[in-house]
Amino acid sequence: MFTLRRLFKRGTRSTPDADDPASASPSPAAPAASEPQEPLAKTATPAILVTGGCGYIGTHTLVELLSRGFEVIVVDDLSNSSNESTRRAEKIGGKKVLATYNISVCDGEALRDVFRRHSVEAVIHFAGLKSVTESTSNPLKYYNINVGGMVTLLEVMKEFSVFNLVFSSSATVYGHPQVEGPIDEDHPVAPTNPYGRTKLMCEDIAKDLAASDSRFKIALLRYFNPIGAHSSGLIGEDPNDIPNNLIPYVTQVLVGRLPFLRVYGDDYKTVDGTGVRDFIHVSDLALGHVSAVEYLRKQIGSESDAKDKSKENLWIWNMGTGRGFSVLEVVRAIEKAAGKNVPVVMSSRRPGDCGEVIANTTKANSDLGWSATRGIEEMAATAWLFQSTHPDVR
């Protein structure tokens, strides 16, 4: 058993709107593990369990699932999100989630209660910490929550015979590019920070589990740089703390919540000297998750599959556009959308930064029939729409 997770129990982490009755989740909360468990009438409708479903990528994925008629259950401890985002996703998707549980994936007993209450057919696992900087200063927290949470979730899934998993991984597992041009899924993995290493550890755990039990069908999605917001302007990226990602940082500068944007490095061999990244619209990324879920549902499994090691049951797909934009190109796109300039301060490169990272998405295009379609202009315009219409949203 992974013991570090025991340090983080449900209810020990901050919940931004826990004291506000108007913003409390109307959905049932799982009882504490110490409470006596009364027999529950398990819901018969198969559902997709989305961990981290109140977060940035999670809520956009909820929209795509709900609008396609999926039944959805949300698990989120609200450490960097709020239940309001889920309610907005329900409004856009035209359908309610079955239930929202404000619990941590590190709390095995609370998770078990969710699985007792619902018939779960697949899990999309977003929940986790994602700041490269914070992971460097507090690595144990990241290993505890990201890796410990993954182990706990997989233990509970296996206990309840739920074998379909889509995991939110990251292109940070690749580390520094060792090839010129776009990176495919066979590129060597060598993460350069604790956050990236937690993602790679989770991938390795999933691989070992899939190899040991062929009933599991697991998709590992390696994201590049998700940005933008839903076209309705109702949901977008608005972290509780200072943003780690480029676009929310820029938009918060534009609405006066931050003074300026600091750009690290203007001497790379790129179009304007600033770093180039593969930015993908969050709605395209959300559709990638739906495509992955549908792909896994088509892979028929049975008890006998557990001993059949010849069948492929784990897939890795890059989630990007295959095209790169520089930091300043993204800034200019947001300035155009907002009609105002962004104060920029240029600084030297940070240790470990690289000039260009772009995805090769051929495998996802072929296997899933999925591709990113939204351009940088739409990414910038939707991000600005969300920020400008919700300047102080939390």
UniProtKB/TrEMBL annotation:
Catalytic activity: UDP-alpha-D-glucose = UDP-alpha-D-galactose
Residue stretches of biased makeup (Basic residues): 1-12
Residue ranges of domain NAD(P)-binding in the record: 49-381
Enzyme class: isomerase
Keyword Nucleus in record: no
Region annotation Disordered: where it falls in the sequence: 1-40
GO cellular component: cytosol
Keyword annotations from UniProtKB, A to Z: Carbohydrate metabolism, Isomerase, NAD
GO terms for MF: UDP-glucose 4-epimerase activity
EC number of the protein: 5.1.3.2
Bias (Low complexity) ranges: 21-34
Biological function: Mutarotase converts alpha-aldose to the beta-anomer. It is active on D-glucose, L-arabinose, D-xylose, D-galactose, maltose and lactose.
NCBIfam families: galE (TIGR01179)
Assembly with partners or alone: Homodimer.
PANTHER family cross-referenced by the UniProt entry: UDP-GLUCOSE 4-EPIMERASE
Protein name: UDP-glucose 4-epimerase
Natural source organism: Gonapodya prolifera (strain JEL478) (Monoblepharis prolifera)
